[in-house]
Amino acid sequence: MPAEDNFTVTPYAVEGDIDYDRLLDQFGADRLPPEQKARFPDPSHPLVRRDVFYAERDVDSFLDAVNSGEPHSIVTGRGPSGPMHIGHIFPFYFAKYLQEQTGTLVYIPFSDDEKYFVKDKSLDEISDCTRQNLRDLLAVGFDPEHTRIIVDTADADVVYPLAAAFAKDVTQSTVDATYGEPENIGLSFYPAVQATHLLLPQLVEGRHPTLVPIAVDQDPHVRVCRDIAAKQRYDVAKPGALLSKFLPSLEGPGKMSTSSDAPSILLSDDRETVIDKIRTHAYSGGQTSIEEHRSKGGNPEVDVPYLFLYYFFEESDERVERLAEEYRKGTLLSGEIKELAAERIADFLENHQERRAALGSLEEELSGYRLTEAERQTARRRAGYPDNALSQH
């Protein structure tokens, strides 16, 4: 980012008080306008209605397919470097919502290789994170008939050949300009792997609109992939993107992160832990005393418990608007909105944890979500490889 900006947003670092409008200028994306929001399935998701997904690239082609019943897909993935928190999970629940509404095909790549490149963790530690994160994704409840989960190292028979094909279209200067100078050659190659993730649904199912709902820091991956698709070496359309703001950290501006000093609300946290974290650490937009708050009111726009409710944990628009109004007037206290947010988050997590606990073995549960051998061969063939390439030699 330019020197005058007091924030950093890259796929590998998010710091500071983020100016989302300036990010659009830097990344060249467009704000999601009301007319596009209105084209999402009814009832639309709060993440769309409330401008959490606030920017887009080529979303119209995806919405055209959604509304005409034509094939369409979503790709949204996970980098397994630690336990998942509530900021990680909401894109997946959004993908499930679209799948339930319109039968959307959902592809979920796990970039375990990338996390080994960027994190100070052993392969064994990354593997354990992958297994635990996979259980959390399975607990979301996707339809296995319309969902594929891909783990880079476990599915290298399809991921690597496609990445090798796409890597020829990405120069090192492009990688440097987009991401900065890579720390190792793994990160130099990784944009080709990410392009594989985003183009894989089309290579399996044939050309169709694909949408990538991701946090705005991941947009560089989409831009590089769109450049590859634009070369028209393969029969694929450029993937579109739906870019989201970050769920705030408990301490205020910036995104929630398990690697920061501020605690995150983990998917594994019990009710008591959630309540304690919100009470103790959540940044308040209220005044320093009850009397002053009653007199001057609070600011819901910076109040983290309110923002949690607004982003994801309160379905009713009427309810969130009323909470904001009462908070501004001072009739709703900071402690009261903290308690409400903590209870809603705890309810959500308990339901998620119950589904997770009901899962069988990971191998058994995951089997229905794996790419079939026919799908693998189809993807390789559409990228230019002959069927059963090994037997040809």
Q: Could you describe the 3D structure shown?
A:
The chain has 393 residues and is α/β, with parallel strands linked by helices. It contains 18 helices and eleven strands.
Give the gist of this structure.
The protein has 393 residues and is of the alpha/beta class. The protein has helices at residues 20-27, 34-37, 46-49, 59-68, 86-102, 112-118, 123-140, 156-167, 172-179, 185-205, 219-230, 271-281, 290-296, 304-313, 317-329, 334-357, 362-366, 373-382; strands spanning 7-10, 13-16, 30-31, 53-57, 73-75, 105-110, 147-151, 210-215, 240-244, 248-249, 252-255. The chain is built from 18 helices and eleven strands.
Structural class: alpha/beta
Largest sheet: spatial strand order: 3-4-9-8-5-6-7
| 3D shape | globular
Low-confidence stretches: none
Question: Mind sketching the topology for me?
Answer:
Layout: E1 7-10, E2 13-16, H1 20-27, E3 30-31, H2 34-37, H3 46-49, E4 53-57, H4 59-68, E5 73-75, H5 86-102, E6 105-110, H6 112-118, H7 123-140, E7 147-151, H8 156-167, H9 172-179, H10 185-205, E8 210-215, H11 219-230, E9 240-244, E10 248-249, E11 252-255, H12 271-281, H13 290-296, H14 304-313, H15 317-329, H16 334-357, H17 362-366, H18 373-382
Parallel strand pairs: 5-6, 5-8, 6-7, 8-9
Antiparallel strand pairs: 1-2, 3-4, 4-9, 10-11
